[in-house]
Amino acid sequence: MSSGIxxxxxxxxxxxxxxxxxxxxxxxxxxxxxxxxxxxxxLAKGEGKDLPFDTVIAANIGNPQQLDQKPITFFRQVAxxxxxxxxxxxxxxxxxxLGYQKDVVQRARKLLKEVSSVGAYSQSQGAPGIxxxxxxxIERRDGYxxxxxxxxxxxxxxxGVNTLLHVICANPQTGIMVPIPQYPLYTATLSVLxxxxxxxxxxxxxxxxxSMAAIQESYDKAKxxxxxxxxxxxxxxxxxxxASLPADDIQSVLKFAAKNKLVVIADEVYQTNVFIGExxxxxxxxxxxxxxxxxxxxxxxxxxxxxxxxGMVGECGHRGGYFELVGFHPEVAAEIYKFISIQLCPPxxxxxxxxxxxxxxxxGEPSYALYKxxxxxxxxxxxxxxxxxxxxxxxxxxxEVGEPQGSMYLFPxxxxxxxxxxQAKKEDRAPDEFYCFRMLDATGVCxxxxxxxxxxxxxxxFRTTFLAPGTDWTERLVKFHEDFMKEFK
Amino acid sequence: MSSGIxxxxxxxxxxxxxxxxxxxxxxxxxxxxxxxxxxxxxLAKGEGKDLPFDTVIAANIGNPQQLDQKPITFFRQVAxxxxxxxxxxxxxxxxxxLGYQKDVVQRARKLLKEVSSVGAYSQSQGAPGIxxxxxxxIERRDGYxxxxxxxxxxxxxxxGVNTLLHVICANPQTGIMVPIPQYPLYTATLSVLxxxxxxxxxxxxxxxxxSMAAIQESYDKAKxxxxxxxxxxxxxxxxxxxASLPADDIQSVLKFAAKNKLVVIADEVYQTNVFIGExxxxxxxxxxxxxxxxxxxxxxxxxxxxxxxxGMVGECGHRGGYFELVGFHPEVAAEIYKFISIQLCPPxxxxxxxxxxxxxxxxGEPSYALYKxxxxxxxxxxxxxxxxxxxxxxxxxxxEVGEPQGSMYLFPxxxxxxxxxxQAKKEDRAPDEFYCFRMLDATGVCxxxxxxxxxxxxxxxFRTTFLAPGTDWTERLVKFHEDFMKEFK
Lengths: 489, 489
Hints:
The structure is a homodimer.
Chain A: H1 19-23, H2 31-44, E1 57-58, H3 73-83, H4 91-97, H5 102-115, H6 128-142, E2 151-154, H7 156-168, E3 174-180, H8 185-192, E4 196-201, H9 212-224, E5 228-235, H10 247-259, E6 263-267, H11 282-292, E7 302-307, E8 321-326, H12 330-341, H13 348-358, H14 368-394, E9 399-400, E10 409-410, E11 413-414, H15 418-426, H16 431-443, E12 445-446, E13 448-449, E14 462-465, H17 472-487
Parallel strand pairs in A: 1-12, 3-4, 3-5, 5-6, 6-7
Antiparallel strand pairs in A: 2-8, 7-8, 9-11, 10-14, 13-14
Helix pairs in contact in A: 3-5, 3-13, 6-13, 7-8, 10-11, 14-17, 15-16, 16-17
Subunit structure (chains A, B): Homodimer.
Pfam family, one (chains A, B): Aminotran_1_2
Organism (chains A, B): Ascochyta lentis
């Protein structure tokens, strides 16, 4: 940036750029995250002796491999061969000296046949053979058919959500029902699109499950305001809440969508991060419903999303994901295809990791034992950390949180002392944001304030991942909270 | 898709989805490309004995590695280590038996230190150290300073264009000047944004250079229609035209932008694909201008884009790129940062390949000789093919094209016989589209009709890459054209 720029000198100013971009909010990588990066840079330079912490913990974002999580060996071994296929000419060396099993080599050859080169564009929708693997995974998972024509590979799940909302939002009256609290991708994208967010509150008292009363109320209000409600989004398992929905909740949402002619967008990126109960996909619930009541729910349109970023895979830097369309009109699907074509194709290596995620080594295959050990180890580690953090929160005065159910987050309620509320107001910050800044400054732990996700008026929360290893940082949190409560008592 | 869906049964129909998405056109992956994929699938299944060709040539899209181009060894060796860092524990084996040089290992270690893991999210704007490498490249290229704060890594150049247009287009009156013919990313994105494309014709008679008269005329017309013209896009070297702009043309555009307060968007993804003359960046031309006339052009805002997809790198499947902002207001830059944050970060391996593209092995380093040999070989091969295709076109009656200058395309004019025009009309196709379909059906060669890029009323063109190896396919084209002209004489 040249120095001395003033607003009147530049063509573009805050006042004349796209107001809908300007209105968008995305707290996950907002001011708190930026400040934490500054702390990190300071410490990296060997400065920051004055800081009351020696490491920054990015608990603001589900970024497993930035913290402790090791990538799954099978995925990365195959990826290394995809990147340098010349290694395949040394198969003996790979297997004898470098720890590559036969099935690693076979998978690499199969994927290379599919994509020619990970450096080449694929079809816009993703390589057909990889989409076929995804369809087979969905079939195995749900017990109902899926076809590769309905599978669209994407650049993480985020680009899938972006695509779906772009196509559905027709004008400023279009409304999309979004859970509150929610992952702010939804509200931010709706801002950019100048469409209406129709918020429905999740039920904190019922472990952040869906409340049909709240959904109905929100829908009625929107309709009464002239909103053309077109879709309902559900995040299951929940982000930021971690809630894992039971079958009844899912079927109730589907019935509501059918009755009110809403498209269902099911964000299921945490489908393998479930600690309590089992994950039920919206696709399975829909097919179950259709089977139980033939003819009654045939017209439901469902888009469900998945990703390589979460689960035990945690390959978010590779930007891979997919969505499956169910019941969409072929002409609308063709418009979705055209829209994604404009950005050419999702990263091809990310597509290949999608293939490995949905089709990992099977029992009896040479890489299976290690894969299973790593997968189960990551799962157990996440669960252990979730409970450790849960126990730490239980020790904190005025902090309440339910037992961890799933996803990668805890989202405790905090009851803040009056004097803290007053100080927050003085600093022109939302109370929970004020609390999170204090936490960052005192502990180096970066979280996201509840305001970033939405919450009931007068309630305060924060979201933290439970990805960071060790117990040191949770102890820092306990100590900080004690001091904070003392300071503002 | 369930069978038996009718429009009235689905929530979403062509008539109620986003009309701006529906209005967008993107011919590069349109009907012709879809038909060519069907031919390819047919041939792959061993069917298609009835077809008059035995291979499909995707000359519709600059996708080097789908055709013959081999990736550059250094890039892919480093990438293989980034994917499987455990290989770094076998450095002796890598160097003694697998062809990895010391500098490959060093680069991998350096990049891993920068990104922790290619499976982790980076900062939204891209990893700082990689942006630093880009800034240093720009400095070396132009002889003027650049700082990493102004560099934004992107998901190919396409996402960069998408970001810039999203932020600039404030309302339906916003106008963006776009060259015609153009790469349809621009018009498609403006359609989606419901902003106005302000087309200016390139001068075919002057090797598709810019014509200031045409730019002025287009600008005046837009202003007279109430368009709020905010930016001018230039693609240099040209796509689809291949034109490589001289310094005078570039400075004229910059002066025009300064005079009329336009942001300049310079799409420079083909900057190394130049056969005649030398590439001059808009950044360098701007700094030269500012140096020559101190104070006069200080307020120009320039965004220039580059990519790993083209050049001798050709790693389009990895989706990497960057843009540099010059002279943007910091508050506007902050909005750009927020916008890209919503999609989290560009693929991290793509970021690493950006780093290697801008900072390849240097003379004296162990990988330099092979790198240089591969790089020069690809350059020479592209040039050779460009000229072979040019010679083939010269043989064709009614086909005219200038000497290849740059990029990856030729964009010949075709003069079609009256009877061909009549037949096209009968089939409800644009004449050049009709011609391209006939070409595909007869030869298996997929190109893009001039209508997909825009052209002067009554003129017809098509764009073909010159990436496909061998001369067989150019001979197929010559033969097809002869038959076509005979049929419609």
